[in-house]
Amino acid sequence: MQRVSLGGLTVSAEGLGCMGMSSVYGAADWDESIATIRRALDLGVTLIDTAAAYGTGHNEVLVGRAIAGRREEVQLATKFGMDFTTARGKVVIRNDPDAIKASADASLLRLGTDYIDLFYLHRVDPEVPLEDSIGALAELVQEGKVRHLGLSEVTGDQLRAAHRIHPIAAVQSEYSLWTRDPETVVAEAARELGVGLVAYSPLGRGFLTGTVDPAQLAPSDGRRRLARFAQEAAAANQAIADEVRRIAESKGVTAGQVAIAWVAARSEKLGIPVVPIPGTKRVSWIEQNAAALQVQLTAEDIGDLDDLADQVVGARY
């Protein structure tokens, strides 16, 4: 696996998103999830991404167990500040300094480690000055509890403001063939500042793999609430998945591998490191995903794939 630098933090060119092992995408198996993370490390996928909000702490505990004895191999990323426990569909964001420091200590305990490689502000809290939040994070760096700072789903102006207080290594945003927001929202600022982009949901929450039937999703699957997975929208969006599959078949690879390869290839176009972190909870899928960076896309392939975002039916949320 190739390595890239995110603002001074060297990571694998592809990471593993662990959210689905604990929440959102229906049931998961603890033992299979542990095996998936360990297999990722065997394959050189060492950027492991979690968050306090995933399964209300469950995911951090799981990740901590999976990397036990192999901590030195891992670039461990987690996030703070989002609370889903108040009511279904309602999110409380809290980024005041006291909450940040308490969250860091709780994450360290659940993860079973004494430092976090990349600590993300999960969402900006409009009620707390960004200076206060980043100032508290800078103190965690000084204390050695955190090594690098990240922001999730921010604008270019927010990134610049935060970076003036303390260097930011990475911005995490949803980015895929059918979600291109970071290109206009934050990429320019990231390029100016030398900040990397960590792309979550590079598989379009599974839709781009062509293996997900929205009508068959479990009642607990969070995708049932997303506009692009609604019946009419999903039917229209099938043309996007079909085009990805066509290109994949011409190369003898899978649609998911093409989708991941396209995201990784955007590093050159955007002028910043772009690290996809496809999520999975099965060993077979991590093996397939890890091989995606070997897929070679031609200029014609990329041109065809670039145009797909214009065909999307349904808002992101």
Automatic annotation (TrEMBL):
Residues 15-309 form the NADP-dependent oxidoreductase domain. One of its GO terms (molecular function) is oxidoreductase activity. GO terms for cellular component: cytoplasm. This is Predicted oxidoreductase. Keywords: Oxidoreductase. The keyword Oxidoreductase applies. Pfam families: Aldo_ket_red.
